[in-house]
Amino acid sequence: MIGRPVASWVRFSLGLDLCASAGRSWLAAVQLLLTGLDTEHSLVRDSASYREQLELLVIDSLLRAQWHDHSDELHEERPPVRPRTVKRVVDALERAPEEPWSLPQMAQVAAVSTRRLQQGFREHLGMSPSVYLRTLRLDRVHRDLLAGADSVTDVAYRWGFTHLGRFAVAYRERFGQAPSETLRHGTG
């Protein structure tokens, strides 16, 4: 919830105000869980995934309702975390941007439809998955050219660009110069 692992116990202050809005919300979550556990053939008793979701609700609402040693960090404004579907694909693309990724393959990694994957990328990264991949590849090419590695053609092919004309146009749009200029001036 705070964007990083917590290595120690969470220390709560004593006394949760159950009359305050946050305290009432936590109590309602606990009562929902307890009612389900007390009722025969309820979703809580019959469905482990439903029970786990309610347990997470109880924990989440407690962490938000009661002051603890991470409260300040929890309540500070931060950019939203990318959803797991987008993160899975971003991680896979960053591990192997040179692979010939197709949109269906990316969607398979995320375990969502291609349409949902595209929506997620637009919502959270402001671009489509293919634009993200092209940008990632261009950045890798740029890094290699600055280091003076190989020829422009070899570097472009290494990072998955198969159409050199489109590659050169995209490179110039991103970096404001031709790839050969970057190679020529990179190490100097």
Automatic annotation (TrEMBL):
Residues 87-185 form the HTH araC/xylS-type domain. GO terms for molecular function: DNA-binding transcription factor activity; sequence-specific DNA binding. It comes from the Bacteria. Keywords: DNA-binding, Transcription, Transcription regulation. It holds the Pfam family HTH_18. SMART domains: HTH_ARAC. SUPFAM superfamilies: Homeodomain-like. PANTHER family: HTH-TYPE DNA-BINDING TRANSCRIPTIONAL ACTIVATOR EUTR (PTHR46796:SF12), HTH-TYPE TRANSCRIPTIONAL ACTIVATOR RHAS-RELATED (PTHR46796). This is HTH araC/xylS-type domain-containing protein.
